[in-house]
Specification:
Length: 189
């Protein structure tokens, strides 16, 4: 009896230790969960961080963004300079007009790369419903792949375009500071 109790306590301790030392399988931000790791064409990408896009003077949550990279970093410039695979996932937490999203992207690019911006914004749906996901994946030599839900909408060529695109979120002028902070591994929300 004593031996079985001792075994049970040892087993409980071992399981408890594993539970504490195992990495979490997902992260959560304002009700949105994203996995810690994903695989893109055989390459493992890690969740660098998650941030919330807030809009209007009332800081209304629009979407939760997750940034996946090969090596986690708090240095946005280093992530942007890297030619490695990157993925940005936008999970919407409210309905958004596709034209509003397209205008925000156009404003972020300014006058740069107009043809590529037009191609990208032309892929966006007319309405982006609460719960929808837009996924943007850059792979060297392949360009920036755009997915609407699980459907590939198209690709925009050019490493420079992709760098500028990711720079919208983690560059010098993000839509809101908390979004960039979260994507670079800081607190989400």
């Amino acid at each position: 009896m004593l031996r079985s109790r001792s075994f049970a306590l040892s087993a409980f301790a071992a399981v408890s230790l594993l539970a504490v030392s195992s990495p979490a399988e997902a992260k959560r931000c304002v009700g949105v969960t994203m996995p810690d790791e994903i695989t893109v064409e055989g390459e493992t990408l890690r969740l660098n961080g998650m941030g919330v896009r807030e809009a209007t003077i009332f800081n209304v949550n629009v979407y939760v963004a997750g940034l996946y990279v090969p090596e986690v970093s708090t240095d946005g410039a280093a992530i942007l300079a890297s030619e490695g695979t990157k993925r940005l996932v936008l999970r919407f937490v409210r309905d958004v007009d596709g034209e509003t999203m397209a205008e925000a992207i156009q404003d972020a690019f300014g006058d740069r790369q107009a043809a590529s911006v037009a191609r990208l914004t032309g892929m966006l749906p007319e309405e982006i419903a609460d719960g929808s996901t837009l996924t943007f994946t850059y792979r060297e030599g392949s360009g920036l792949e755009v997915r609407i839900g699980n459907r590939v909408a198209g690709t925009v060529a050019g490493a420079g375009f992709a760098r500028t695109f990711f720079g919208i979120w983690i560059g010098n002028r993000p839509p809101n500071r908390g979004l960039k902070r979260g994507l670079l591994g800081g607190r989400c929300g």
